[in-house]
Amino acid sequence: MGLTLTEKILKAHLVDGEMVKGKEIGIKIDQTLTQDATGTMAYLEFEAMGVPRVKTERSVAYIDHNTLQNGFENADDHRFIGSVAKKHGIYFSRPGNGICHQVHLERFGIPGKTLIGSDSHTPTGGGIGMIAIGAGGLDVAVAMGGGAYYITCPKVVKVELTGKLSPWVAAKDVILEVLRRLSVKGGVGKVIEYCGEGVKTL
Question: Which of 29, 49, 12, 20 lies closest to 134 in space, CA to CA?
Fold first, then answer.
């Protein structure tokens, strides 16, 4: 039996361990993203590592969460993030450019690549065929420095879609129904892949 899309991407990025479901594996990360609510700590950690330039194909720092300026704290964070981005070869997305997970998908997302981000909505990139995972700031810093990201090798759940969506039904309704059936905890340690003729109508 052939490999699923998830298994193909993970196998191509495998740097440690074996592709055995439930076992820990280390994968190479192609891209990272941060946003200003979580990025400050990630960049402090990255700078502490002493790596002069990021080793990912692309790392982007988004200023999109803490844009309200009613004190000096957010402005200071933004200046710090901007200086780190310039110093270490990180793309800098200014306030007003858009929200990180959506902008990243539209501007930088590449099917078959791996992405971790210090934003819980980073898995949005999975919609175009990336392995995209929300992670802690230290994990993102390590990936920017060229280190592997460790995960439990996931089980892949195949959802075959047939027919077409009814009026007023969107792709989001499909995942909500899958979650209703599996429960949120039912998706832990799994990647859900959609296939079948119904995918064309999403």
Answer: 29
